[in-house]
Design brief:
13 helices, single chain, mainly alpha, 334 residues
């Protein structure tokens, strides 16, 4: 399709700019929010941005604990480690029996957990739709919710399915890597397996770092580039990824540097906000911590950041320019 045509020549035929793209994004923000300043528009766009980012930064960290028997030399005895693992398993079974024997705990497990999962899925679905609604308002220079909710619904649903599927796959991969690290860490205390297991532990540790970096870039690219491609061409999430990835393969340096550029901007913005918070005796921190109010106050920065990804992506060709007249998404995803 036209989006990926000439992908192999992308890096050789164009100069990718970062600060210039940021300057254009800043100019678009001023036009949208201040020329003229309309409080209703500001409030609605802030609401869309807030809902779209409800799950941003949320996450969990796997953890656990346990104990193992030590040998005479201070090393972990493999037999003792096995006994410790069996004891942990026995404890899990005992906890399960206790849950089944206590109606309150049973309600939490069989009703509370499914309800929590349902709430999380509902939030993912709503935020997926609002990511496209927020984008649509910025592209069209308006502040609406109902009409784009209906028009962009199929695209939002496709984004929802991708986020759920990828999130589950990422959780499984992370659990496997963490389990491997724990297992190799246990074996590294044994005399007979210490050298091999330590080498494996280093390799698994590097793999986990690569996993975290890859995960961060995937979520960044999804929101910054794949969602605009979905919007630009009415594509499903997977089809948009297929259109985007050839360009990453053709010019990986530009996209990797984009991630570092965004990190630099976040650090600079964080330092500026921290200075303002301290200068106001932490009053600014309190206001920014209030749901929606913080988004309302930071809206110029948030809109500039969203425009930045659109301006950066547009440098790769007209097929990526969401501000073109044909960018108004109306077709169902393919």
């Amino acid at each position: 399709m036209a989006v990926v045509a000439g992908a192999g020549r992308a890096g050789a035929t164009m100069t990718i700019e970062y600060w210039a793209a940021l300057g254009r994004a800043w100019g678009r923000m001023k036009t949208l929010l201040f020329r003229p300043f309309e409080p209703v528009r500001w409030i609605v766009i802030a609401f869309c941005a807030w809902v779209a980012s409800l799950l941003d930064g949320a996450g969990g960290h796997p953890g656990g604990g346990g104990g193992w028997s030590h040998g005479r030399n201070g090393d972990i005895d493999p037999d003792g480690a096995l006994e410790g693992l069996l004891a942990v398993w026995a404890g899990i079974l005992a906890a399960w029996e206790w849950i089944l024997g206590n109606w309150g705990a049973t309600l939490v497990v069989f009703l509370g957990i499914p309800l929590l999962v349902a709430v999380i899925l509902a939030l993912v679905w709503v935020t997926s739709r609002f990511q496209l609604i927020y984008l649509d308002n910025l592209v069209r220079g308006r502040a609406e919710v109902v009409e784009p909710w209906r028009r962009l619904g199929p695209l939002g649903d496709s984004l929802f399915l991708f986020r759920v599927g990828f999130g589950l796959a990422a959780m499984v991969a992370g659990a496997v890597l963490v389990g491997l690290l724990v297992a190799l860490g246990i074996l590294s205390f044994g005399d007979s397996t210490r050298g091999l297991s330590i080498a494996g532990l280093l390799v698994a540790g590097m793999a986990f770092v690569v996993y975290l970096v890859g995960l961060a870039y995937t979520w960044l690219f999804l929101k910054a580039f794949v969602v605009p491609i979905m919007y630009r061409h009415g594509l499903s999430a997977m089809a948009a990824w297929r259109a985007f990835l050839p360009w990453v393969g053709a010019d990986p340096t530009s996209f990797l540097l984009y991630g570092l550029f965004v990190l630099l901007l976040f650090v600079a913005a964080g330092l500026a906000i921290g200075a303002i918070g301290l200068a106001t005796c932490c009053i600014a921190f309190v206001l920014l911590a209030i749901p929606y109010v913080g988004t309302l106050l930071l809206l110029p920065l948030l809109v500039t950041y969203r425009y930045l990804s659109l301006e950066f992506l547009a440098q790769f060709g007209p097929g990526f320019d969401v501000f073109a007249p044909a960018a108004i998404a109306s077709a169902p995803p393919r």
